[in-house]
């Protein structure tokens, strides 16, 4: 004779009459439902991956064609993320929001103008010496050419045997540098003006954007998540740019002192140039080494002496990039070098030098968003794993438990 306590036990175990078939402790009907849901989720994930790849490949053409619109917008968003904490500090001192936003933007413009003037003004005076530097480099190479005369003789004999004769060289005349500058100036001025106007209005409206983002959510959890995402993106990008700016300023000071010690012209210019180029990962330091090599070989009496500035900067960059910067930034700002180079080449292809400068802040913003919204498991997805770290069975079991 069964008791009332035995009835639910048999129902749970599936041993009683009329009980649903069980497989692995889960009813088969529910297991089929979960399998169908898993397949449907995988199909949707595959469509999302394909759409993301299509957008990644098509986006450069759209952004490059509409650079007059999209480049100022993206640059204004990055400036808003960078300058909003500074504007909040000014507002905390009792300034009105309008004046705090304007003061933050004006301070940024003053710093950029000072940095560019420190580099460009002496650079224009040294630009006239470039032909003389190239002639000096030619003299250095001509002195070493005696040991390589057999290569020139071999090329001449090969050309004589092949019957190759020197033909007339056709040179297509192109616009001069001044003509190119005159053509590009109106577009550059328009983009800069649009960038700072949009950045000012975004910074001034930052409070309204925050309230709308937080208060328009229907659930408290969504509001908290939106607040965390907004704070993380703003703090990470602003802290990274500020920290890197301080490091690059230190590099510029060391380079300026080294240029002064080596007797180079305009040491402040070389320091400012080193600080500005150091904002471009990998590409900037290589450009600085090339410029120092050109200047050193073009002004020194011997090639070995001319290579001293470039060798000294290479040693400084090695210490800075492998010891100082990683220890200061820490693991929070550590990014995959492949991702940095990919972002650098991707946005340089779209927007040139400006895109290269914006590549790392854009990558930081995307990384912070992905960490909060969910990091896709692309490699595991190819081998049958979920695109995002979730378990359907566990999720439904947790849902059933919460419902119970």
How would you describe what is shown here?
The protein has helices spanning 6-13, 28-65, 67-92, 97-127, 130-144, 149-162, 177-204, 206-215, 220-261, 267-277, 283-299, 303-306, 308-329, 337-373, 378-382, 392-403, and strands spanning 22-23, 26-27. With 404 residues, the chain is mainly α. Among the domains are: 67-129 and 186-217, no CATH class; 231-373, no CATH class. The longest helix is centred in the middle third of the chain and has 42 residues, at 220-261. It is globular. It starts with 5 loop residues before the first helix and ends with a helix.
Sheet-strand content, in percent, reads under 5%
Number of helices: 16
What is the averaged pLDDT score? 74
Classification by helices and strands = mainly alpha
- Biggest sheet overview: 2 strands, antiparallel
What is the share of helical residues?
Answer: over 70%
Strand arrangement within the widest β-sheet reads 1-2
Q: Report the count of strand segments.
A: 2
Shape: globular
Kindly report how far apart the N and C termini lie. 30 Å
- List low-pLDDT spans: 1-14, 166-174, 391-404
Radius of gyration: 31 Å
Order of helices and strands: HEEHHHHHHHHHHHHHHH
